[in-house]
Each structure stands twice: as structure tokens, then as C-alpha cells.
């Protein structure tokens, strides 16, 4: 599924970026371009981020 049509960013790409540590929209905007054109993808991007963090919760805990 496409998350960001403007930059052809898929859900899989967002999940991969989150797995690599991009856990907020600002970072994903720099890395993938999501939310930098029309902004309609921001809510979906936030949902994908949250979903991925639920799958990998311990990975992101602060020491």
C-alpha cells in the first residue's frame, strides 16, 4: 500500500525506516519525503509508525 502518493512511498518502506530508527514524521520526511508535499499522508504515516513500534517495542526503549 502506498502511504505517500506524492513521493511513491510504500508502507513497507516506512516500516523499514522505522525499524532502522526513524521513529517520527520529521525524520521520515527527511529520509523518504513523506509529508513534504500535500501532507495528506501524515496521519497514515503516524499510524504505520505506531503499528511498527508495537511490533518491535523493546528495540526503541531508552537505556
UniProtKB/TrEMBL annotation:
Does Iron-sulfur count among this protein's keywords?
Answer: yes
Name the cofactor(s): [2Fe-2S] cluster
BFD-like [2Fe-2S]-binding domain span: 2-50
* Keywords, sorted A to Z: 2Fe-2S, Electron transport, Iron, Iron-sulfur, Metal-binding, Transport
Single GO molecular function: 2 iron, 2 sulfur cluster binding
Pfam families xref list: Fer2_BFD
Family recorded in the similarity comment: Belongs to the Bfd family.
The protein here is known as Bacterioferritin-associated ferredoxin
Q: Which organism is it from?
A: Ferrimonas aestuarii
